[in-house]
Amino acid sequence: MSRPGPSRWLVTVPMALLALATIYPLLFTANVAMKSRREYILDRFSLASTLRWDNLSTAWNSVGMGRYFLNSVIVVACAVALLLLIGSMAGFALAQVRFRGSSVLTLVCLAALFIPFQVIMVPLARIMAGGGLIDTYPGLILAYVAQFLPFTVFLMTSYYRAVPTELVDAARIDGNTLYGVYRRIMLPMGAPALLSVGILDALFCWNDVLISLLMMPSADHRTLMVGITSLRGQYSADIPTFAAGVLIAGLPVLVTYLFLQRQIADGVTAGATKG
């Protein structure tokens, strides 16, 4: 067997270091979550001598993380459903329907990807407050849709551009309306892209802290990622309990990635490989 050449090492070593830098924070958090408070204070970097699984139950029950978890599930599910519905319709229209201004709208969606949320957070908060949507599920759902819709539209547009135009024309000749073409042809054909984009949108919404903190200021309506900050405030010196809360909040994301990593990769590269 031939030895790997220098060029392969130039790729392997940086990738291994990057993987280690990515995995280490997760392993460190899991190790801290299994320690007692005294053990953590004495040596925070040592391996846990005994596994304190009760830290997980303490983190879950002490601040009502079940309520925060349910809030996140409701908001993320509704936001992703709206994102996929609107994004797939807009992607179909921009990619396959001929109308004046479609190119400009596509560029607008692309430009919106480069606008940080911090730029629009104050106007968005004022609009939501004026509509009575602050501290409500619909307010946070609409905020997520507004933030992540350009990404969804851009990827769905890129995917639908790979569909032959002749297929749409043939369906129109057969008597289908534009909605009929979308529902009977484009929606089933776009299922792989919808799955990939839906997973990415769900991860974005689940991991969000800033938008949720802005739109849901009261304790009862917090999402899980914001709710775990209550552990840090209530247990100012109990870092293992806080680490256990972080571990619980990150577990759904980790499980999703492990089982659906191929779909996630497809969603990330959809805009580059389609169209």
SSE topology sketch:
Elements: H1 6-33, H2 37-42, H3 54-62, H4 65-96, H5 102-112, H6 117-130, H7 137-160, H8 165-173, H9 178-189, H10 191-207, H11 210-215, H12 224-227, H13 229-234, H14 239-273
Helix pairs in contact: 1-14, 3-14, 4-7, 4-10, 5-7, 7-10, 7-14, 10-14
Short structural summary:
This protein is mainly alpha-helical and 275 residues long.
What does this structure look like?
The protein is mainly α and about 280 residues long. It is about 75% helix and about 0% strand. The chain has 14 helices and no strands. It has helices at about 5-35, 35-40, 55-60, 65-95, 100-110, 115-130, 135-160, 165-175, 180-190, 190-205, 210-215, 225, 230-235, 240-275.
Beta-strand percentage range: under 5%
Multimeric status of the protein: single chain
Report the C-alpha radius of gyration, rounded: 23 Å
What structural class do you assign from the helix and strand content?
mainly alpha
Discrete helix count: 14
Unreliable spans? none
In one word, what is the shape?
globular
What's the total count of β strands?
Answer: 0
Main beta-sheet strand count, sense and barrel state: none
* Intertermini distance: 41 Å
The pLDDT mean sits at 85
Domain ABC transmembrane type-1: 69-260
Protein name: Carbohydrate ABC transporter permease
Membrane topology: Multi-pass membrane protein
Family: Belongs to the binding-protein-dependent transport system permease family.
